């Protein structure tokens, strides 16, 4: 039985799935998928962590233009679907559940990663503030081209097709990545969106693409099996910000609520050692959204239990602790010490720092 009083071990229903606990493994880019096709090493990694209430498959490119990192998984052809199907079947066989995070990097890419060595596109022709990771090393950022309004229906169709393929790949639900500086986030924030058409200007206009994409993928899955990741104040990595994040994200969440989405996955603060430098009222998002609220970023076992017990969140996402602790649920259950993450092996190419962290009962 779960330890008495530990809210993280209570069951919950999300996206038509009944979970045995409220501990979520956050989607994390690990760069162990050459060619974009999930492989045996990926199967080992995810099945090691199948005791999570819910596993989120790492950020997965919806189209060739969405790729921004080497060796990341994709979901835009039959081989990608077959590779992911092997992963989801293996996790399901162990009683686990998996959602997939659909991802487009937008401007955070390089021409050599794009079809025909083209420039990556973004809402506006503004470059990211940091170097772009490639293998090996990093390259200076490039200035993207602004996507034409006539191209946006095709982009939405790419999301819809990826959502359909995620269903074929055996996932239980999907999440749109609209945070941490990637394409949908680039449209949301006025530091990166300088458009003067229907997709720029007011918070309603800057939220338009996210809501149109959410509506499109909800046609495939049903709105209750779709969620969105947002990161209202996270500048880490790409230096993005908004001049009024509170108004912007309240507007966006109101739109997601109107569609009837099943959950939001909220990165609370910055994914650095400074969790919150920008004041933000996350409780306002929680009160506006009637689906499952997943709190994400820097949570410990104690803080996670408190957040659920006091009504701040319904589930807690754990990222870095899950990298180093495949059996995180059992460690929480026993009150055991956690392994420390080895940062230098975070995005290597083999099992080191990926599937070789020790288990309690090894």
What does this structure look like?
The protein has helices at residues 40-48, 78-93, 152-168, 183-188, 203-206, 208-221, 245-259, 282-288, 301-309, 320-324, 328-334; strands at residues 12-14, 17-19, 23-25, 54-61, 98-103, 121-122, 132-133, 138-139, 145-146, 173-177, 226-230, 263-267, 292-296, 315-318. With 362 residues, the chain is an alpha/beta fold. The protein has one domain: Aldolase class I (TIM Barrel). It has an eight-stranded parallel beta barrel with strand order 3-4-5-10-11-12-13-14, surrounded by five helices. The protein has a two-stranded antiparallel ribbon with strand order 1-2. It has a two-stranded parallel ribbon with strand order 6-9. It is globular.
Descriptive key words:
eight-stranded parallel β-barrel; about 15% strand; single chain; alpha/beta; two-stranded antiparallel ribbon
Mean pLDDT: 93
N/C terminus separation: 22 Å
Fourth-tier CATH superfamily name: Aldolase class I
Query: What is the string of SSEs from the N terminus onward?
Result: EEEHEHEEEEEHEHHHEHEHEHEHH
Number of helices: 11
Describe the sheet with the most strands: 8 strands, parallel, barrel
The shape, in one word, is globular
Strand order of the largest sheet: 3-4-5-10-11-12-13-14
CATH level-two architecture:
Alpha-Beta Barrel
């Amino acid at each position: 039985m779960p330890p008495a009083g530990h809210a993280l071990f209570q069951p919950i229903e999300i996206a038509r799935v009944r979970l045995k606990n409220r501990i979520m493994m956050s989607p994390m880019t690990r760069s162990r998928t050459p060619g974009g096709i999930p492989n045996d090493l990926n199967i080992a990694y995810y099945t090691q962590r199948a005791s999570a209430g819910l596993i989120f498959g790492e950020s997965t490119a919806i189209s060739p233009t969405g790729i921004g990192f080497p060796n990341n998984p994709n979901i835009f052809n039959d081989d990608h679907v077959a590779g992911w199907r092997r992963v989801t079947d293996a996790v399901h066989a162990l009683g686990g559940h998996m959602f997939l995070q659909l991802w487009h990097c937008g401007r955070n890419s390089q021409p050599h990663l794009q079809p025909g060595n083209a420039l990556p596109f973004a809402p506006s022709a503004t470059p990211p503030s940091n170097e772009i990771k490639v293998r090996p090393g990093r390259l200076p950022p490039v200035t993207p081209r602004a996507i034409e309004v006539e191209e946006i229906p095709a982009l939405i169709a790419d999301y819809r097709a990826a959502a359909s393929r995620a269903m074929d790949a055996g996932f239980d639900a999907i999440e749109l990545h609209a945070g941490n500086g990637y394409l949908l986030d680039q449209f949301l924030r006025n530091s990166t969106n300088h458009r003067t058409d229907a997709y720029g200007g007011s918070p309603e206009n800057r939220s338009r693409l996210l809501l149109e994409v959410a509506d499109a993928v909800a046609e495939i899955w049903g709105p209750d099996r779709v969620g969105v990741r947002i990161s209202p104040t996270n500048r880490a990595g790409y230096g993005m910000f908004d001049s009024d994040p509170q108004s912007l994200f309240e507007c966006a969440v109101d739109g997601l609520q109107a569609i009837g989405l099943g959950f939001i996955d909220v990165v609370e603060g910055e994914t650095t050692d400074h969790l919150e430098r920008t004041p933000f009222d996350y409780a306002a998002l929680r009160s506006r959204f009637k689906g499952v609220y997943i709190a994400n970023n820097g949570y410990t076992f104690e803080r996670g239990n408190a957040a659920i017990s006091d009504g701040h969140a319904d589930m807690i996402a754990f990222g870095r602790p899950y990298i180093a602790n495949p059996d995180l649920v059992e460690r929480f259950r026993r009150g055991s010490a956690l392994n420390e993450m080895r940062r230098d092996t975070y995005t290597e190419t083999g099992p080191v720092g990926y599937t070789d962290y020790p288990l309690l009962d090894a």
